[in-house]
Amino acid sequence: MRRTSLAAALAFAALSAAACSGSDAVLFTNSMLAANAAVDPPIMRAVDGLPGWKRQGSPERYNKEGLYGYIDGGAELVLQYGFRELSVFKFEPAAASAAAKEIVLEIYRMASGEEAFGLYSTKLEGGEKGWPGIKSDHWITPGQASLVKGEYLVNILATECTDREIGEFAAALEPKVPGRGTARPKGMERLPLEGMVPSSGRCIIGPLAAQNESPFLEGDFWGFDGTGKDGNATRAYSAKYGVVPAVSKLVAVELRKGLEGSPIDEGVRALFEAYLQDVRREGGRLEGRNQAGRWFLYERAGALAALVLGDPDLDAARARLDASIARVAR
Questions:
Q1: What was the pLDDT predicted at 328?
Q2: Least C-beta-crowded within 10 Å: which of 150, 206, 248, 277?
Q3: How many CB atoms lie within 10 A of CB 190?
Q4: What span, in angstroms and rounded, lies between the C-alpha atoms of 267 and 154?
């Protein structure tokens, strides 16, 4: 249906351009070509010219409905991050004498750069290694790599390739991906930098991502489902802090409109009492600890909230929570 509509639009454009003359026709045609490129960007149709590699055939392309057939059991999470389309490419070494290897390249086009970063961040654990020359946020591990640039998330799967082959492939690919670097959500600024584990920051969008992040983010009362006024939804940002084995997590939450009242506080308290012991309220702060003696804290300032999850040092946990609340209150 999309192709038929696009063809009809282009045909109409050609007739309209014919009725124009000179620069008017050129401008009209150029605008239609730009609109066509926005609907079907070149990066989603073909990726070529990567040194040492040649593309095998045409890409496999998936829309929202088709994504379920490609991702077994993981499509819902991707959809909640504003998925638009996916193109999957396969590459083999360009040299005939090279060993038989294959790179599978996945390019996800998301609704925005922030949502692309959000989906990318779901895989971050902290301490991931990068590759020289790649400016956008990325990581390289044995057999795979990922980068996020503009509204595109790129996954590279290459189990038979060396880290060097994968890194060089990613470095050659990155300039071909549209966009001006990584669009990190502004809410990430609510996470204090002091003590943060490098590359551990996540953007949490949708109830599935919230559930995966922590059982303390489960529950409809948080509003991650996006059923509030004007379809807005709660978003959260998290990062790890400390040094192994004393690593904890800080979560900064932006509540959707209409959820800044006491029902949030009551919902969090119920979770604390279900999972923790010695739950108590200290002023505006809720505190509790688990059986291992690690501390969990919660505080809210209007429509902004913060949680510290699993810190072995109560004083450090309080200081980090205060720092987050001070940032969100600005």
A1: 52
A2: 277
A3: 25
A4: 37
Closest CA to 104 of 57, 151, 150: 57
CA distance 260 to 254: 9
Spatial separation of the C-alpha atoms in residues 70 and 72, rounded to whole Å:
6
pLDDT digits (tens, 9 = 90+) for 141-174: 999 999 999 999 999 999 999 999 999 999 999 9
Q: What's the CA gap between 174 and 147, in Å, rounded?
A: 8
The pLDDT tens digits for 16-31 are 444 445 555 554 445 4
How far is it, in rounded angstroms, from Cα 289 to Cα 280?
10
Percent of the chain with pLDDT over 90: 77
- In this structure, which amino acid lies at residue 142? P
Spell out the SS3 assignment of 3-55.
Answer: HHHHHHHHHHHHHHHHHCCCHHHHHHHHHHHHHHHHHCCHHHHCCCCCCCEEE
| Number of neighbours of residue 44 by Cβ within 10 angstroms | 20
Q: Distance (Å, rounded) from C-alpha 302 to C-alpha 249?
A: 22
Q: Which two tokens stand for residue 58?
A: 């045409």
Between CA 118 and CA 235 the distance in angstroms is 10
Residue 221 has pLDDT above 90, yes or no: yes
Query: What DSSP string describes 226-284?
Result: --SGGG---EEEEEEEEETTEEEEEEEEEPPTT--SHHHHHHHHHHHHHH-EEEEEETT
Of 139, 142, 96, nearest in space to 121 by CA = 139
Whether omega for the bond prior to residue 93 falls within 30 degrees of 0, making it cis, is no
- Over its C-alpha atoms, the chain yields an Rg (Å, rounded) of 24
Q: What residues have CB less than 8 Å from 57, skipping those under 6 apart?
A: 90
Q: What SS3 state is found at 106?
A: strand
pLDDT of residue 23: 54
Backbone dihedral angles phi then psi of residue 216, each to the nearest 5 degrees: -80, -5
Q: pTM to 2 decimals?
A: 0.85
